[in-house]
């Protein structure tokens, strides 16, 4: 993966108010820890030699989910042009963990940062045809202007952070 | 239309201007400006629109096949597809599935169209709207006023007042943050308790059975995740063939709607999904037993598909760009546009198709045909044309009994029953000819109290408007007496100056200026006696008369066109007829010949100067300060820059307005039922021309209507820009 999409990704994320934290597989836990506000929930990560610390509850009940301050999940890929991440929700609970907590931390592999929407839809089409039941193109925090002014954090997270695994 | 009906309409509009106008104006401006900015960032905006259009054309063409395909796919995935003939059929199915269980909904205008909430509640379900705007409307018991932001007409203060009265919270709610947090918590409980999640769908892919939902709040995700039965309600036109087809729409819909490059969430659900769901015990249980029902709504759509004029409506992706760019909508909002469900812009097509012409009829006139929406539509629907066609059908469906009163004045092609007011304005050419023949007597008579009172009572011509004063000598007569001044042998070009009805009979000075300016640049000018372009009848929905006028105009201009001369047009709305509407009114070759040869006058001057004409033949601007208002249809044709460039090249100091329309829009501002809205829209332009930087500037405007409006609302007398170039 060339550096260019990553640089574009970072500036696009910045435009939608999302911080990018660059790290590597072996530094992941120390990069993640400062981002965790307790209680934290999450869904197990699919990256080799990368796992969630014990402080992150991966099998929460409804009450813990709704009380969570941080939700950590993998994101299948990122879109450099838009600063979006694709949350693929499956039985491990990526969807609720990324949706209910105040802050969503999305973990993306550097090699999964795609340049644009064209490339994204090629990949999405392939994934959906092979059984991905749910893919959310998520860009920045949830938001609404329905109450007379722009408010971040409507039904979903108030804040989003992307952790990039540069060596994955 | 009776005097009472006009008064009732005027009162309704006045009420909405007072109560909802400010909120709607503020919010639509954000969307409208956002769209211009966001689409400007797209390198391939036009190509994406073409791609989106092509996908929709193909999908609607193959719709029955796509319905079969999606049914097969979703059933193979373990879901159910039900194609509902109409609202009652859909509601029967949905209530059977819900079976009295509690329902949480995300925003769906199609569910508003079928009024499913009422059916569900009648069958014992509790139904909660979880989109915050829909929630506000549910609490307020009001109808949406905008297809994307349904509570756009409500201010924060009004929402706070509503919530405080309805929910009586311990501490009164005040800020948008507090209101949002309160709604989130309130609805969070409803979502956790509900069994059925109901969503709409912005798109449905036939190949994989994927629903694409474009949202920002996250409530649609929760409604699907937290429940174990998902019902999606979608118009059958939402089908696209393949997942890849979603790409241009995903890039266009947020930009076109709220002016965001992309909304927070574009959810691609291929149900039934396997995300864990809430079980009854407060645990996250397996989502493997989810039920999924896709209800595809016909409700008139398959008939629209067979209708050559309304079919385009089905390409609509309901982004709201047409409403946001509509000057009238910006000022008065969707509640003024009538319609049972949809309001503003393309809504006329939807209402005519799904609820019938009656529902589209009442405020169909609020589309003035300014065409500002045309370039904004991501699927390139000619929305003004759809409004015109629906207006024509409404006209033809009306019985009339007063035709004898205006028959002499209205030699049109329309059947009896067309509203008298419409026939009067639609036959402006005849009126102007008579007015000119009897001027100045006709002008004196028309301005008298009794005449104005009669005009207002019988024809709804508002007596607060000054009527156009007809010139005794028309432009054509003036030119016949004067003759051409440039020898064809020595001429740089030869042109036919088209004498539109206003330039010919009312504002002859701008026609004379145009002749002299062109001659100063060594152009041989003729002014053939061509009639009204058809713009006037078309704006009243009198399509047959417009067509007949178009044919006559073509016959008058054909010799010049055949001789290789150019056609120069002063009035932008008539040039727009030649370039846009004539495609539908004339044979293809005639349309193409006239379009290729016709130019707006300042555009033509620009072309002459670019091709070697002598700038010194035109007057020096000497930094004279000018405020220029281009014309709505001229801007749609992207012809504003030529006027600015010519004036600047001549040394004028030019600033421009950026309102979508002056609000006058031909006959619109004369009609007593719309006078106040017209003035309200015009005031926005006046505001731009009375700032510190503009208040001392000479005002010029290209359109007749714009000149009439500015003349009425500004202390300075405006003129057509070509007059700045005239040495006389």
UniProtKB/TrEMBL annotation, chain A:
Pfam families with a match to the protein in the record: LUD_dom
Superkingdom in the source lineage: Archaea
SUPFAM superfamilies per record: NagB/RpiA/CoA transferase-like
LUD domain residues: 60-165
UniProt-recorded name of the protein: LUD domain-containing protein
UniProt organism field: Natronococcus jeotgali DSM 18795
Species lineage: Archaea, Methanobacteriati, Methanobacteriota, Stenosarchaea group, Halobacteria
TrEMBL record, chain B:
Occurrences of domain 4Fe-4S ferredoxin-type (ranges): 359-386
InterPro entries given in the database record: 4Fe4S_Fe-S-bd (IPR017896), 4Fe4S_Fe_S_CS (IPR017900), FTHF_cligase-like_sf (IPR024185), Helical_ferredxn (IPR009051), LUD_dom (IPR003741), LutB/LldF (IPR004452), NagB/RpiA_transferase-like (IPR037171)
Keywords: 4Fe-4S, Electron transport, Iron, Iron-sulfur, Metal-binding, Repeat, Transport
Name of the protein in question: Putative iron-sulfur protein (4Fe-4S)
GO terms assigned for molecular function: 4 iron, 4 sulfur cluster binding; oxidoreductase activity
Gene Ontology biological-process entries: lactate metabolic process
SUPFAM superfamilies named in the record: alpha-helical ferredoxin, NagB/RpiA/CoA transferase-like
Gene3D superfamilies with a match to the protein in the record: Alpha-helical ferredoxin, NagB/RpiA/CoA transferase-like
Lineage: Archaea, Methanobacteriati, Methanobacteriota, Stenosarchaea group, Halobacteria
Keyword 4Fe-4S: yes
Family matches, as PANTHER family: LACTATE UTILIZATION PROTEIN B (PTHR47153)
């Amino acid at each position: 993966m060339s550096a260019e999409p990553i640089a574009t990704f970072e500036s696009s994320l910045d435009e939608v108010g999302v911080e990018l934290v660059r790290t590597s597989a072996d530094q992941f836990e120390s990069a993640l820890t400062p981002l965790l506000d307790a209680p934290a929930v999450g869904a197990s990560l699919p990256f080799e030699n990368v796992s969630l610390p014990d402080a992150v509850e991966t099998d929460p009940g409804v009450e813990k989910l709704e009380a969570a301050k941080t939700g950590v999940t993998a994101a299948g890929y990122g879109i450099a042009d838009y600063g979006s991440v694709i949350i693929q929700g499956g039985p491990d609970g990526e969807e609720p963990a990324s949706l209910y907590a105040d802050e969503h931390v999305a973990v993306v592999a550097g090699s999964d940062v795609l340049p644009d929407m064209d490339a994204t839809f090629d990949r999405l089409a392939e994934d959906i045809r092979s059984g991905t039941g749910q893919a959310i193109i998520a860009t920045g925090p949830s938001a609404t202007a329905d109450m007379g002014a722009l408010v971040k954090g409507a039904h979903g997270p108030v804040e989003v952070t992307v952790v990039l695994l540069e060596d994955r | 239309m009776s005097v009472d009906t006009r008064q009732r309409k005027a009162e309704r509009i006045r009420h909405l201007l007072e109560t909802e106008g400010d909120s709607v104006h503020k919010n639509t401006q954000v969307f409208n400006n956002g769209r211009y900015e966001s689409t400007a960032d797209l390198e391939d905006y036009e190509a994406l629109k073409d791609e989106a259009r092509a996908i929709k054309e193909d999908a609607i063409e193959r719709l029955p096949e796509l319905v079969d395909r999606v049914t097969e796919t979703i059933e193979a995935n373990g879901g159910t597809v039900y194609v509902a003939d109409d609202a009652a059929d859909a509601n029967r199915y949905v209530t059977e599935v819900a079976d009295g269980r509690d329902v949480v909904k995300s925003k769906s205008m199609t569910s508003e169209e079928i009024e499913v909430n009422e059916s569900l509640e009648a069958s014992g379900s509790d139904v909660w709207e979880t989109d915050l705007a829909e929630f506000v409307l549910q609490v307020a018991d009001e109808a949406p006023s905008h297809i994307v932001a349904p509570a756009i007409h409500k201010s924060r203060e009004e929402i706070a007042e509503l919530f405080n009265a309805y929910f009586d919270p311990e501490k009164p709610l005040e800020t948008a943050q507090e209101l949002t947090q309160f709604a989130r918590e309130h609805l969070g409980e409803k979502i956790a308790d509900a069994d059925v999640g109901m969503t709409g769908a912005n798109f449905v892919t036939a190949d994989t059975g994927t629903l694409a939902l474009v949202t920002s709040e996250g409530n649609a995700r929760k409604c699907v995740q937290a429940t174990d039965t998902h019902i999606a309600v979608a118009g059958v036109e939402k089908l696209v063939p393949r997942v890849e087809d979603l790409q241009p729409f995903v890039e266009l819909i947020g930009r076109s709607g709220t002016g965001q490059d992309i909304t927070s969430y574009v959810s691609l659900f291929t149900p039934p999904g396997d995300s864990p769901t809430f079980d009854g015990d407060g645990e996250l249980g397996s989502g493997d037993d989810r039920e999924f029902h896709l209800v595809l709504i016909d409700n008139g759509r398959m008939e629209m598909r067979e209708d050559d004029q309304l079919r385009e409506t089905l390409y609509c992706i309901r982004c709201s760009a047409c409403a946001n760019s509509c000057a009238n909508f910006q000022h008065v909002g969707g509640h003024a546009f009538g319609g049972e469900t949809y309001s503003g812009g393309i809504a006329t097509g939807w209402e005519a198709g799904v609820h019938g012409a009656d529902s589209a009829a009442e405020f169909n006139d609020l589309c003035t045909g300014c065409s500002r929406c045309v370039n904004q539509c991501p699927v390139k629907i000619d929305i003004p044309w759809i409004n015109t066609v629906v207006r024509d059908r409404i006209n033809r469906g009306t019985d009339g009994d007063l035709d004898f009163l205006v028959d002499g004045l209205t030699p049109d092609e329309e059947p009896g029953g067309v509203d008298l007011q419409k026939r009067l304005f639609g036959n402006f050419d005849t009126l102007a000819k008579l007015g000119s023949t009897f001027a100045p007597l006709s002008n004196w008579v028309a301005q008298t109290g009794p005449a104005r009172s009669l005009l207002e009572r019988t024809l709804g011509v508002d007596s607060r408007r000054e009527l156009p004063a007809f010139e005794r000598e028309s432009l054509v007569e003036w030119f016949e007496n004067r003759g051409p001044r440039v020898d064809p042998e020595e001429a740089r070009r030869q042109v036919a100056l088209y004498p539109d009805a206003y330039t010919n009979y009312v504002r002859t000075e701008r026609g004379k200026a145009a002749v002299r300016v062109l001659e100063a640049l060594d152009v041989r000018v003729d002014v053939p006696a061509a009639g009204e372009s058809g713009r006037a009848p078309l704006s009243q929905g009198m399509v047959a008369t417009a067509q007949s006028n178009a044919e006559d105009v073509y016959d008058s201009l054909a010799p010049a066109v055949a001789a290789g001369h150019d056609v120069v047009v002063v009035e932008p709305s008539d040039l727009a007829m030649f370039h846009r509407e004539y495609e539908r009114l004339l044979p293809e070759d005639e349309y193409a010949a006239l379009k290729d040869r016709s130019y707006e006058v300042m555009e033509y001057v620009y072309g002459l100067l670019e091709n070697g004409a002598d700038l010194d033949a035109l007057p020096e601007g000497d930094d004279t300060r000018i405020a220029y208002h281009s014309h709505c249809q001229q801007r749609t044709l992207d012809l504003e820059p030529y006027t600015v460039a010519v004036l600047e090249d001549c040394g004028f100091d030019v600033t421009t307005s950026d309102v979508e329309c002056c609000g006058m829009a031909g006959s619109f501002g004369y009609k007593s039922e719309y006078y106040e809205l017209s003035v309200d829209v015009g005031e926005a332009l006046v505001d731009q021309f009375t700032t510190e930087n503009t208040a001392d500037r000479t005002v010029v405007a290209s359109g007749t209507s714009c000149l009439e409006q500015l003349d009425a609302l500004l202390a300075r007398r405006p003129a057509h820009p070509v007059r700045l170039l005239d040495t006389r």
